[in-house]
Each structure stands twice: as structure tokens, then as C-alpha cells.
Amino acid sequence: MAKEELPLTTRRDFSAALAGAVAMPRQWEPSYLALERSGELARRARALLEIYKECRLCPRQCGVDRTKGQTGVCGSTSRLRVASAHPHFGEERPLVGRGGSGTIFFSHCNLLCVFCQNWEINHRGDGSNVSAEETARMMIRLQDAGCHNINLVTPTHCLPGIIQALRAAIGMGLRLPLVYNCGGYEPVEVIRMLDGIVDIYLPDCKYMDSKVAARLSHGASDYPEVAQAAIAEMKRQVGDVVLDERGVARRGLLIRHLVLPNNMAGTDKFVQYVATRLGRDTWVNIMAQYRPQHKARNYPEIARPITRKEYEQALAWAKEAGLTHVLTQ
User: Fold this and answer.
1) pTM higher than 0.85 for the full model?
2) Which stretches within 80-118 are classed as H helix?
3) What's the pLDDT tens digit per position in 248-274?
4) Closest by alpha carbon to 242, among 96, 24, 66?
5) CATH number for domain 11-324, candidates 3.30.40.10, 3.40.50.300, 3.20.20.70, 3.40.50.720
């Protein structure tokens, strides 16, 4: 099959997505500052650290004592491991603005998708072990560089260490919103512990079929129901995307959905789920960048890029579902 060119994101696409978006008042501070002042953030940090002793941070529920160096499916101990930290200009425009999104890429992952585009980081665990204090300094450097947010990429399995780092960064003057950039495979009870800490949720919603999830993401057959429950809780906490006067996101939920060949992601069902369960004003990014990375070529149903026709069909489904804030590529 000949390779087909896909449509690019346009300024018009973004302007359409912005229509009707809620504007954030000028006087604003990240929600975690109030929790720190009240002592609640310290309490939650302690509670999260306890989970490392019998890890249930993700739905795998491995139960290993990570404080003693034991590892479960994700391959992580209790030490933070970071692959890179830098201003990122390839994220969604409401996150990037002019100064970029301050991304910190954490090593390892709890999903281990066969088509992972960052498999060296997520599967192999490339990166360096860092302390909470060092991670806090990364956050401050990103803030000093003019980034609009701190974008925590693949944070699920190392959340306790991240909250430790956040508290240290607050003491150093951190005042940027936190972006929780995850694969969507999150227990609701852990997401509830982030209420008032995270301002912007950026989860994937990868699959709508349990058999596909099990085949492509290391046996995670419960992914559809787990992700949908977690995303509903995220929406309850932060609502729809709220922008400042520059068009930069300060708060809200933005769901990523990667279109897969042969509709393996169930895009038609995904857009209906968003419209009926979360509301048509929920922000979504219908992504076109799938390429067969890592082990994907061993799976015939996803062993090729998506076509223009497949992507245009995905956008048509979103339009039919009545979604009003759709970012496109």
C-alpha cells in the first residue's frame, strides 16, 4: 500500500477548538499551593509513599515492596528515574503557547504497549536515577526557561516521588500548573488523591475493546473500563479546559486518542463515549501520528501507518458525535 500524506494541524482547526472556551481570570495560582498551605499536601505525600511498600499505584496491583528494590510489571523501584527534562513545543497548542510545555519524561511505564514510540524509555528504562530534590530543581529550571506548565510524562508508577519533588519545588518558588500526562491506566482511588494537586489532566484513551487492550498492552484487558472511570474522575475534578488571556491552558481535561489502523482503537466508540458520558464540550485530540514502532510489525493489524481515509473517517465520527473541541493533526 502506498504511503498517503495526512492533513496537518491548521490555525483554523485550533481557532475552531477555542470557540466558546472558558477564559481564566488574570489572578490565578495552581491549586496545589492551597493544599501545601493547609498541610494537606504533606499528608497526601506521606500516604502515597506508603503505597510503594505494597505497590498498587496502577491497576496491575503488583503488590511488591519498591522501597526494598523490588519491581513489578513497570520495572521501577521507589527511586525516580528521568529520561529528559526540557521545554517541549510538540504538545497541544493550549499547552505549548509561546514558551513551551515544561516536560519531564519519567522512565518505565505501566502499560508497555507493543507499538510504543518511546520504547527505549518506557520499556528499556533508559534514563538516570534522580532524587526528589534534583527533580524539583528540574521543575524550577523549566519555570525559569519560560515554560507555561510542568508536564509530567508517564507519571503513574512514580507518583509518590513526584509529589515529594513538588513539595520541594514549591519551597523553591514553583508556581506553574501541573500536567498529568498519562496512558489512562489509572486506579480511580489514586486519581482521587490528586484532587487539588493536578490542574491539567492529559490522559490517553487508547482502546474501547478489552481484547485489543490485552493484545497490544501487556494483558491489560481491563483498560477500557479502568481508563473510562479514571477519566470521569479527572473530569469531575478539573472540568473542561480553561484558558488564560494568551490562549494557554491553566486547568481542565484534554483527552488524547491515537487513531490506529483498521480502527483497532475503536475511534467510533470513543467519540460516542466522550459525547454521552463526559459531554460534547470535552476537549479531545484525535491524533494521526501512529507509525509501527517497537514490536508493532509483529502484529499484522497494526503493522502499517494509518491512511488519510482512516484519519478523515475518525474526524467524521467526531463531528457526527457533536464534539465541539477537537484538536486535529
Assistant:
1) yes
2) 93-96
3) 999 999 999 999 999 999 999 999 999
4) 24
5) 3.20.20.70
